[in-house]
Amino acid sequence: MTNGDLFSEAYRFYWLCCTSILMHTPHLNEHKSNIRSLDFSPDGRLLASGSLDGGVILWDVETGQPLETLLASNRLVLCVDFSPDGTQLATGSTDGTVIIWPVE
């Protein structure tokens, strides 16, 4: 998968999530359930995806490969958001849990 393919799929997901339409895309299929939230790191190298399975995956935008899987909650992950400097990732879940993860 090329950088453009992953970007296109992520943008499509972002648009669908913003319009409250949840769909599963085969290019981001490491999650066990539908993706609910996406965010690109400020430098554009990473993509974070939060899912209804309670997981968060950090993706390498250039290769399209997952780099790390985080278990944010036993509940649905509703939002993921990189800090402005890209060194942290915040996740929010339906159980009210907010976690700040370090990003390396």
Could you give the topology of this structure?
Blueprint: H1 3-18, E1 35-40, E2 46-51, E3 55-60, E4 66-71, E5 77-82, E6 88-93, E7 98-102
Antiparallel strand pairs: 1-2, 2-3, 3-4, 5-6, 6-7
Describe this entry's structure for a reader.
With 104 residues, the chain is α+β, with helices and mostly antiparallel strands. It has one domain (3-102). Helix content is 15%, strand content 39%. The chain has one helix and seven strands; from the N terminus they run H-E-E-E-E-E-E-E. It has one helix at residues 3-18; strands at residues 35-40, 46-51, 55-60, 66-71, 77-82, 88-93, 98-102. A hairpin with a 5-residue loop joins strand 3 (55-60) and strand 4 (66-71). The model is unreliable at 18-26 (pLDDT under 50).
Keywords:
15% helix, 1 helix, 7 strands, four-stranded antiparallel beta sheet, alpha+beta, 39% strand, 104 residues, three-stranded antiparallel beta sheet
Concise summary:
The protein has 104 residues and is α+β, with helices and mostly antiparallel strands.
Tell me, briefly, the overall form: globular
What is the topology, as strand order, of the major beta sheet?
1-2-3-4
Residue share in helix: 10-25%
Tell me the span between the first and last alpha carbons.
Answer: 23 Å
Number of domains: 1
Number of strands: 7
Q: How many individual helices?
A: 1
* CA-based gyration radius: 12 Å
Q: Overall mean pLDDT score?
A: 77
Q: Biggest β-sheet, characterized?
A: 4 strands, antiparallel
H/E series: HEEEEEEE
Structural class: alpha+beta
Low-confidence stretches: 18-26
Into which percentage range does the β-strand content fall?
35-45%
